[in-house]
Amino acid sequence: MAKPRRNVKFAHRSQMGMSSSNEFGGRRGSMSSAASDDMGAQMSPSRLVPEQNNVDVKEEPRLSEYEKKKQTFITRTIWTLAMIGIFFGSMAAGHLYIVAIVTVVQVMTFKEIIAIANVPSREKKLQFTKSLNWYFLAATMYFLYGESVIYYFKHILLVDAFLLPLATHHRFISFILYIIGFVFFVGSLKKGQYKFQFTQFAWSHMALFLVVVQAHFILNNIFEGMIWFFMPASLVITNDIFAYICGITFGRTQLIKISPKKTVEGFVGAWGCTVLFGMFMTNILMRYKYFICPVKDLGANVWTGLECTPNPVFLKHTYNIPFFLQPVLGRTVDIEPMQFHILAMATFASLVAPFGGFFASGLKRTFKIKDFGDLVPGHGGMTDRMDCQFIMGFFAYLYYQSFIAVHSATVGSVLEMAVNSLTPQEQVEVLERLGRYLVGQGIIQEKVVECMNGVLSSPPA
């Protein structure tokens, strides 16, 4: 067998190398470059047609960084204005529309969080994982929404023959619904996938606690009065805006490593701006009963209004001024206690609620994602917008119940006690004695009581 000869030059390869050298600015040709040119000639469509038929295709100019930022800013601004319009429009339309918005928000947020962990379940082809997540969401919402509706609307539910059993046995029904899902989960465990399935189970329950449970308290804030929903939400939004403005204006010191763009100067500056906004806006809203009255009719709106006896925090109180401030402010000052409460809420919205956003940032870094979704153009997913709102709404509810709420007997609480604690005979006795009391007070006529007693004493048909 003949051995290959080395250092032998072939004419045609030398010519191709020279042509390649001329074409690319005088570089020396080589066998590899010639071969690559030859392959390029075979593969390139432009080499397969006559040269005179070649048409120059003009590429669209790439956008500069400035243009990209400009487009992003315009998109964010448009959608921000749209969301603000929907928010204020729903608030004017009535409490029921705000409840619907909160419901949609919590469902979309739950979906985005669960979607992070749902990718492996598709790869492993495990059945019912996604269905169970949605089942537990439905069971949890049934329990929490039912608790709120029963608490705030006892006077309606406890006098309806169909709704009464659902109201009196609500917690047991909710427990049975959860147990059904729990048993189904255990029955769906697959050998070799135990660790993954229990991880999914824990992940879904974490999402239920962080999203659905906290959103439940936001619903309670709505029922207590529109101001207890609007002010916490607006404080978080205001703090976010001024943290950005103060940060880009005079921010120098990094606040936290997990969110590198946050600065100490922006953090503190936003605190002061949020406090001022809260005191200003509260002074306006507490003048309108539509905002300060608890809701008893879900059909109410800004045009029909609401009527109630205002909570004492919305009425002016006289406070003594410390002696060292008396030369400036006088001996006393008249101010609504709500102004002091909003100071505490604004402080929480500025110093604590942002850590809900930092928690979300850490979660995104863990799964190496930029946003939780793309539901809102220019803003990312719903979770990216609501990461601070849930914890703020939870705090507002607990603060209201601890320091502001006036606990007194209501028609609903009296009915609940009568229905759950008294026998039918005792309930009739209460009705008769209440009738005699109303006659004695001159509220109703005695004929009404006599007619009622006659109907009650007659045997049922």
TrEMBL record:
Keywords: Lipid biosynthesis, Lipid metabolism, Membrane, Nucleotidyltransferase, Phospholipid biosynthesis, Phospholipid metabolism, Transferase, Transmembrane, Transmembrane helix. Its main location: membrane. Residues 1-61 are annotated as: Disordered. It catalyses: a 1,2-diacyl-sn-glycero-3-phosphate + CTP + H(+) = a CDP-1,2-diacyl-sn-glycerol + diphosphate. GO terms for biological process: CDP-diacylglycerol biosynthetic process. One of its GO terms (molecular function) is phosphatidate cytidylyltransferase activity. Residues 29-40 have a biased composition (Low complexity). The keyword tRNA processing does not apply. GO terms for cellular component: endoplasmic reticulum membrane. Its EC number is 2.7.7.41. It is a multi-pass membrane protein. Belongs to the CDS family. This is Phosphatidate cytidylyltransferase. It comes from Sphaerosporella brunnea.
